[in-house]
Design a protein that fits this description.
Number of strands: 16
CATH superfamily: DNA primase, PRIM domain
Order of helices and strands: HEEEEHEEEEHEHEHEEHEEEEHH
Helix content: 25-40%
Mean pLDDT: 92
Number of domains: 1
CATH architecture: Alpha-Beta Complex
Strand order of the largest sheet: 13-14-10-12-11-16
Largest sheet: 6 strands, mixed
Low-confidence stretches: none
Distance between the termini: 32 Å
CATH topology: DNA primase, PRIM domain
Length: 366
């Protein structure tokens, strides 16, 4: 797998020093590329009384991204991005951005992917280096969501074609049709009782406690199958469980594997778990969404922030920590200290590739 080009600790310290000045605009030089960042005192996240979280400025965001870049970039490299931008902060207008029709800096990699609905290719941004990561922060991209597949071939797994732009048939025969993990999106549909009519459940401790219980059941089931899995908070109300795999299955096959595992968990815990697609039928249960395993769907990157009060982080966890804490414990102002103490729970994920066919063959023979 191609690795993100991550600058040295010394260079990151130099960038931090540039951001630590009192100037409201500075020029950053990263990997030989220079670009200006402005309005550093702009509040992206106002102070939040409910979580006692302080206000977070653009300067704070860029500092955070410099700190977590060695952990985040290995998960973002060569993945098309869906970005959620709040140029003036989370109380302003939100922009969902997949495609950029305006010029981007030369250090920002892009890829063209055919759209069957449009009949032509669209450009997607790839976050392959620190300069891009900080430029996106400067542009108000507070949430970064990435596809489950990459645009570059692996080593000995899956197809090698990188023809994404010519046609739907070429796209389906390319490497981007083959995800490198299976995602289980665990989303509690247990209401606090204070939600406006028609809204999805807001965060509440009872709901999240059920979600973590389901995540632990899923982990146990995957372990019995011989599959290693990794968990992180979504940064909102639920959890994401990721199973890294060799890129030998198309999205439809990966989704079917996720469906079978989700249905098995449903049979074991029918009073708690649901896989119902109809929102009305999920109420009071924990929804396991296997339908996220589709080309074009995306997941918040590990260590990405969310555009919600308190500036929560989609935080990788050790399985031993799933029983502790709640999503808003992992915020931009608390995560750096936790990482200094506990390290990166997902450090080994980019190197894990599991052969599902071999694992299920062993399960059948056992």
């Amino acid at each position: 797998m191609k690795r993100a080009r991550i600058v040295s600790t010394r260079d990151r310290q130099r960038i931090r020093a540039a951001l630590d000045t009192s100037e409201d605009s500075v020029e950053l030089t990263i990997g030989g590329h220079a670009f200006g960042v402005t309005h550093l005192s702009r509040e992206y996240w106002p102070a939040d009384a409910a979580t006692r979280a302080p206000a977070v400025t653009k300067r704070d965001l860029l500092r955070y991204l410099v700190d977590v870049a060695p952990l985040l970039l290995p998960h973002s490299v060569d993945r098309p991005l869906t970005l959620f931008r709040w140029p003036t902060g989370i109380n302003g207008r939100r922009v969902r951005q997949k495609h950029w029709q305006v010029p981007v800096p030369p250090f920002v990699a892009r890829t063209s992917i055919f759209s069957n609905s449009k009949g032509h290719a669209d450009d997607y941004i790839l976050c392959n280096n620190l300069a891009t990561l900080l430029w996106l922060g400067h542009m108000g991209a507070l949430e970064m969501h990435a596809w489950h597949s990459r645009v570059t071939p692996g080593t000995g797994d899956g197809p090698s074609s990188t023809d994404f732009a010519r046609s739907e048939a070429a796209l389906q025969a390319s490497v981007i049709e083959y995800p490198d993990y299976i995602l289980f999106d665990i989303d509690p549909f247990i209401y606090s009782g204070s939600e406006p009519a028609g809204r999805h459940p807001e965060f509440n401790a009872t709901a999240f406690d059920r979600a973590r219980e389901v995540a632990l059941w899923l982990h146990a089931l995957l372990e019995r199958t011989g599959l290693a899995a990794f968990v992180k908070t979504s940064g909102k109300t639920g959890l994401h469980v990721v199973v890294p795999i060799l890129r030998t299955l198309r999205y439809d096959a990966a989704r079917e594997v996720a469906r079978l595992i989700g249905e098995h968990l449903l049979r074991e815990h029918p009073d708690v778990v649901t896989t119902e697609w109809s929102v009305g039928k999920r109420s009071g249960k924990v929804f396991i969404d296997y339908n996220m395993n589709v080309r074009g769907k995306s997941m918040p990157l590990p260590y990405s922030l969310r555009g919600l009060p308190g500036a929560p982080v989609s935080m990788p966890l050790d399985w031993r920590d799933v029983r502790r804490g709640y999503p808003l414990d992992y915020r931009i102002d608390t995560v750096p200290a936790r990482l200094a103490k506990r390290g990166d729970a997902w450090a080994g994920v980019p190197g894990v590739r599991q052969d599902l066919s071999a694992i299920f063959a062993r399960s059948r023979s056992g």
